[in-house]
């Protein structure tokens, strides 16, 4: 999601991200390509969910950089990915919000928005108001869980394995102490420093 989407866009598309987006702390519905979304491996199996995504503000955006529709269409991204949804920031600037690899042999999906936030980020400001404009509705959580289940179902198809159970256990992030960035913000942002 978000940063990973931006990295994939730069690596596959060879483009520079456009800055100046006013899309931080911003929850909005998606503007879906109905035909592509209906046939999508990521969004296609649940008609009701696509309805929620296109009518409810359940996609939390938190970015100042993005990929414009024009940049997408003029780059190799358009050859490799289906453009499932777009959006506009507060100032009316368009951006690509959901992509999926065209070829079924590539399980590559990307969202400029944060489907995970509705389940895991519940921070409050000192005055008790939510720290971010994240919907925690049943529809937001159901969508988030569906996308997580889809991702995991593809990850389970991987044949990559650790050489030994001990090597696998040693690689788990639970072995490392998280670093919380700021005491002045709600504690939902952590970094794990893993020394290889």
Structure description:
By secondary structure, the protein is α+β, with helices and mostly antiparallel strands. The protein has eight helices and eight strands. The protein has helices at residues 3-13, 34-38, 47-55, 69-73, 77-80, 117-120, 138-155, 165-171; strands at residues 23-28, 31-32, 59-63, 81-88, 94-101, 109-111, 178-180, 190-192. The strands form three sheets. Strands 2-4-5-6 form a four-stranded antiparallel sheet, with helices on both faces. The protein is globular, with a radius of gyration of 18 Å. The mean pLDDT is 90.
DSSP strand tally: 8
Mean pLDDT: 90
* Shape annotation: globular
Terminal CA distance reads 25 Å
Rg over CA atoms, rounded to whole Å, is 18 Å
Structural class: alpha+beta
* Element order: H for helix, E for strand: HEEHHEHHEEEHHHEE
Helical proportion, percent range: 25-40%
With strands numbered from the N-terminus, the spatial order across the biggest sheet is: 2-4-5-6
| Oligomer type | single chain
| Major beta-sheet overview | 4 strands, antiparallel
């Amino acid at each position: 999601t978000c940063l990973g989407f931006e990295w994939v866009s730069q690596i596959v598309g060879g483009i520079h991200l456009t800055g100046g987006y006013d899309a931080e702390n911003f929850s909005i519905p998606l503007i879906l390509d109905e035909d592509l979304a209906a046939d999508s491996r990521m969004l296609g199996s649940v008609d009701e969910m696509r309805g929620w995504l296109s009518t409810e503000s359940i996609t939390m955006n938190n970015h100042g950089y993005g990929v414009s529709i024009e940049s997408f269409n003029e780059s190799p991204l358009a050859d490799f990915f289906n453009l499932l949804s777009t959006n506009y920031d507060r100032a009316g600037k368009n951006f690509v919000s959901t992509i999926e690899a065209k070829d079924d042999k590539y399980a590559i999906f990307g969202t400029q928005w944060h489907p995970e936030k509705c389940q895991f980020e519940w921070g409050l400001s000192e005055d008790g108001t939510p720290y971010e404009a994240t919907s925690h509705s049943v529809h937001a959580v159901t969508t988030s869980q569906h996308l997580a289940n889809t991702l995991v179902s593809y990850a389970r198809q991987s044949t990559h394995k650790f050489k030994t159970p001990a090597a696998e256990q040693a690689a788990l992030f639970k072995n490392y102490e998280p670093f919380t960035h700021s005491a002045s913000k709600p504690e939902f942002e952590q970094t794990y420093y893993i020394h290889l």
